[in-house]
Amino acid sequence: MAADPGIVLIFLSIALGIANIFHFNIVIVFAILAIVQGIVLAFVEVPFLLKIFRVPDWFIRGVQTLDQNLYRVIFYVVMAVIQWLSITCMATSLIALAVLLTIAAICYGVAGLMKQEFHKSNVVASVDVSEMPIDAQIRQAL
Question: Could you state, in order of their start, the residue ranges of all structural domains in the chain?
């Protein structure tokens, strides 16, 4: 089974942000934005993190609005445009992030045009723990 492209984008965004933060020009701003995008992507693509970390209600509502293909397209297009703008300063490895964010936006756009429903991650599947033995509850929590 292939890795989820959203998960790959999380790690790539943070890694390329860190790699480009050592430029001594305006690219550092785009590197910081890439790191922030990676963190936001983590909450969007792995909704279970919203239950683990204490985040404001407005942030949770914002992430939950991205549970439709159209809103995901807009989200990824905005992030891709931000990284494409980094080329105006200097051609760096942030181009790879811009390309992959664009591809993700296109994929969500095609899914939306084909009327495919958005599917959430299986990580957040709720289980009624009252029907489970204690050892199974512990395994489920871990």
Answer: 5-141
